[in-house]
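Design job #97: recover the sequence.
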């Protein structure tokens, strides 16, 4: 099968979707023998789509682990000029405010649609909304008479990002839609999308990546104390990921567990300055309880997850949350929120705990419960590990993606045959 993936970023770009499509692309190539090409941007993260001051990668064609990568230059200055205009249109709910937001968010890539139309692929699959390349993919695939699949990664709680009529009109026109969870599938059904073309695929992890190292070994390598309890936040550091709630919750946790360490690890992005200010505002006696690992390498991830006792990721904007799978792969209990897709990933009380979004008190109480009841905490982590093994390995998820691609190709062939007759 010749597959063209169109995605906003690709390694070493930062982000959950970027990582997901990398692993799916590599698994399809290595496990199924598919020919996979990726069209992507030359940006390290989404901020680069509208901020011309951000660093970029070289454009052109390369190959990573058997996957061909074509990086396109982004016209970020065009997007930047729309920033004040789209804000006014959104606030006043004026016509076309959805398209203004889309062009502001970018990435604006001239000739992307035409490049997609001309590329020899059996199926074109794009990830993720609310970005502009999704619409370019639909336009290019239809012009080239190719099967087209969307993997949307919707976060309905993000009103600015996903309350856009153009998104759902575009979804109506694709052959197959891949949803990360049944929450997303139900949401689209309520939006009037034909449920027969929506397939739930989930996200994945390679549990072997987290094996072969003990908690003490990981801590020694990271220069962390062996005898302390450690609460970890490992993932994207963004405004809506709940890191601010976690830091405030730790002020309560430290009252009863004063020696507990908060480990924060992730890629520094737009929110970094706010995070630095928040950490700087902590009382002096608690600053010694912080362990910070910014912009860590992928190979360091297994040490971070194995070093912690509890994974607290109280995000409110997840279409799935790969970080929960990574924590489970290290047999760690997780804490998420009762929001969006997260309750469809975490079974509350069985493999993790759920708390209300932005509720510092409830988050603190959940952390304290897991700190105080080690046997229960351990059982949650083991149950999560078993869930990963049965449902969320990369081969499992890539198989579901591939099934969606095959259905899209078959659908396109049927339509073409009908048109010929």
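Job complete. Output follows.
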């Amino acid at each position: 099968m010749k597959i063209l993936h169109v995605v906003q970023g690709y390694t070493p770009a930062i982000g959950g979707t970027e990582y997901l499509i990398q692993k799916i692309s590599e698994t399809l190539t290595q496990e199924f023998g598919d020919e996979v090409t990726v069209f992507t941007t030359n940006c390290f993260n989404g901020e680069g789509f509208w901020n011309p001051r951000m660093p970029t990668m070289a454009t052109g064609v390369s190959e990573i682990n058997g996957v061909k990568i074509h990086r396109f230059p982004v016209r970020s200055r065009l997007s930047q000029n729309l920033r004040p205009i789209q804000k006014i249109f959104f606030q006043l709910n004026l016509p076309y405010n959805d398209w203004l937001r889309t062009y502001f968010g970018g990435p604006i890539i001239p000739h992307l649609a035409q490049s997609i139309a001309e590329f020899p692929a059996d199926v074109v699959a794009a990830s993720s909304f609310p970005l502009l390349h999704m619409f370019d993919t639909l336009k290019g695939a239809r012009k080239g008479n190719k099967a087209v699949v969307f993997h949307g990664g919707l976060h309905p709680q993000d009103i600015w990002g996903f309350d856009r009529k153009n998104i759902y009109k575009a979804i109506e026109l694709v052959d197959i839609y891949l949803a990360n969870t049944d929450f997303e599938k139900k949401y689209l059904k309520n939006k009037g999308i034909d449920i027969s073309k929506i397939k739930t695929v989930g996200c994945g992890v390679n549990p072997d990546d987290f094996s072969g190292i003990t908690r003490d070994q990981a801590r020694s390598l990271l220069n962390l104390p062996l005898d302390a309890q450690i609460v970890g936040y490992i993932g994207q550091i963004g405004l809506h990921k709940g890191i601010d709630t976690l830091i405030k919750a730790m002020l309560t946790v430290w009252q009863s567990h004063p020696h507990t360490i908060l480990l924060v690890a992730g890629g520094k992005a737009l929110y970094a300055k706010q995070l630095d200010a928040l950490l700087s505002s902590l009382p002096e006696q608690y600053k010694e309880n912080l362990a910070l690992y910014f912009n860590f390498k992928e190979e360091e991830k297994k040490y971070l997850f194995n070093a912690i006792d509890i994974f607290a990721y109280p995000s409110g904007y997840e279409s799935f949350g790969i970080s929960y799978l990574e924590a489970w792969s290290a047999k760690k209990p997780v804490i998420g929120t009762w929001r969006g897709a997260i309750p469809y990933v975490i079974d509350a009380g069985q493999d993790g705990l759920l708390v209300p979004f932005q509720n510092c008190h409830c988050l603190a109480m959940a952390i304290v419960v897991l700190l105080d009841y080690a046997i229960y905490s351990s059982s949650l982590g083991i149950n999560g590990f078993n869930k990963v093994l049965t449902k969320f390995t990369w081969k499992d998820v890539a198989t579901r993606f591939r099934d969606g691609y095959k259905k899209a190709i078959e659908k396109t062939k049927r339509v073409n045959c009908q048109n010929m007759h």
